[in-house]
Description:
Blueprint: H1 8-14, E1 21-26, E2 48-54, E3 64-70, E4 80-81, H2 82-86, E5 97-100, H3 105-110, E6 115-121, E7 129-130, E8 134-140, E9 145-152, E10 156-157, E11 167-169, E12 172-177, E13 181-184, E14 188-197, E15 203-211, E16 217-223, H4 228-232, E17 235-241, E18 244-255, E19 259-268, E20 274-287, E21 291-296, E22 298-303, H5 319-329, H6 337-343, H7 353-364, E23 381-386, E24 390-393, E25 396-407, E26 411-420, E27 423-429, E28 438-444, E29 447-453, E30 465-472, E31 480-490, E32 496-505, E33 509-510, E34 516-517, E35 522-523, E36 534-541, E37 545-553, E38 558-567, E39 570-577, E40 584-592, E41 595-603
Parallel strand pairs: 1-2, 12-21, 13-22
Antiparallel strand pairs: 1-8, 2-5, 3-4, 3-6, 7-10, 8-9, 9-11, 12-14, 14-19, 15-18, 15-20, 16-19, 17-18, 20-22, 23-25, 24-25, 25-30, 26-29, 26-31, 27-30, 28-29, 31-32, 33-34, 35-36, 36-39, 37-38, 37-40, 40-41
Helix pairs in contact: 5-7
Amino acid sequence: MHLRLLTRGQLVADGKMSQMGFYYISYECMKRIVSWVYFYENLVKYEPKILAIFNITHGKRGECSIGFLLGDTSTSDIWKDISEIDGGDWPFPSNDIVIDITDFFPYLSDGPDKFYLGILDAGSSETGILNSFTVEIYKDYFSGDMLEELVSRDKHISTVNGSRIWVEAKEVEVSFLLDSTDATFGDTIELPVEIRFGDYVEVNSIELMLSGYQEGLEFIKVGVDSTLVGELGWSYVVHEDNGRLKIQISGARFLYGNGSLINLLFYVFGEPCSFVPVNFDSISVEASSGVIVNYSNCGIYIEPLPRFGDVDMNKVIQAYDASLILKYVVGYIDLSCQSMANADVSQDGTVSALDASLILQYNVGEIDTLPYSFPQLAMGSYTVSIGNPMAVSEREIEIPLNFHGSKNVFAFEMEIVLESGDLEFKGVVQNETLGNFIMMDNVSGRSIKIAGACPGFSRDGGLSTVTLRFIVDSNSKSNDARIVIRKLRINEAPVRGNAKEFVFRSETCTGGSQGSLPCEFGLSQNYPNPFNPFTTICYQLPEGCFVELLIYDLRGNFVERLVSEYQEAGYYEVEWDATDVSSGIYLYKLSTPNYTAIRKAVVMK
């Protein structure tokens, strides 16, 4: 088969141009003994005005006759030969024939709708072969918008008079689409079944078989309002058996064109946070030509029903729920689908440190209901700077990040990256400068994620200082380091990227052969904090003296003595085992003749 398209100019030159539909045939015809080739097609629905035949080849052109026929092959009075229509002699120039078939319209409009092309080989002595050929139908030839393509079934070789090569419609793609959606327990949902045609085809009936939905959906009925089935007045039969749904659809009028075929109505009863599939098992379509059926399955995601604040799902809202949120924010843990829904108490669609703050505020009575709509005005304000590093041991230093003028800060999230320097993150120190903030941090290589939340006792106060603790490389030859606050978010304000960059130089005091010694007394924040049940308390002594390190509860009651002895100048670490004490806030006090300091520790069980 050879296919060639005429240009607009060529058609005008031939005097056969029409702006209506265009209909052409391309094929090769070789020697054949007194044989006809037929195909039929309803030309009325396309309104063609021109028929073009291309690339006719034959060993003896004078013995080949081409004509057209309506109705059936026995109705010879409707036969029109090429010479009768075109008036030219065979062979035509360049073997190209363009025919105005307007003369056929009286028959096409009122009579039979079958249109035949006949090829008669008048030769009597040679065996011939007729190759397969193609018929393409265009709504608008010049735009290239093809409605249908017809192809012969196979190559036919015969010497028997009257042999035919049959032409059938090209298989048309028909797609059935279901879109996934979300729902909640107890909903009644409507799933449209969309139908899409890759080309023109007339559909007589459709049978759909679906399954997979029975674990979470109950089928109610088929809906046809504002659908193709409803518009055409088609009927449908529904049968459901053993979790399979069969829907048979048919009607007197042809169905064609894209749109919603039917709607499927379901009742949702499945488990929250689950996905219920709705699958096509099979689809059969009866149409005017062969079809290739494509389909896409879908499903229903059943959204959780939030129990706001109960992150651990123990039916109690407590401070532990807030701590789980902070652990999630810094990447320590993952939360389940239901826990995520319960945690979003601000209902902004995210789980943030502010959600932890709101849970804490609910626990202490600052707010009386969850969820809670956080005031837009309370987005928080601040400026940030870096303080002087302080040595807390021979190999550890603390660097404070100071938040100045902070107001309405109930929660914060940040990610800090150590861009350069011979330091290693150890963690965050929670001290009195954080006020009522509870913090969580997660160190990963040269970065640390930090999240903090407070119960919001005072809206005039806010975040003061976040102290970072680093381990110093003892072999380092440089004290320079550069840290970057890569991400910073206050409350639920937009995240600030690359919020701040600092370069600092750490300095130490040295003393004779003992190496590096503290320059001053100091008591560091315990780490980790909150904790369960072990934590480490660090302190430093610039001189030898008698030292006591005692634990008290918030009422001032003595709990435990960790240190009571004379110690030389240096850096010290003491581990506190809080296995035998209950959850709560405790005070640890460092006492020397020349120095006293108190810090808070939070036991969270």
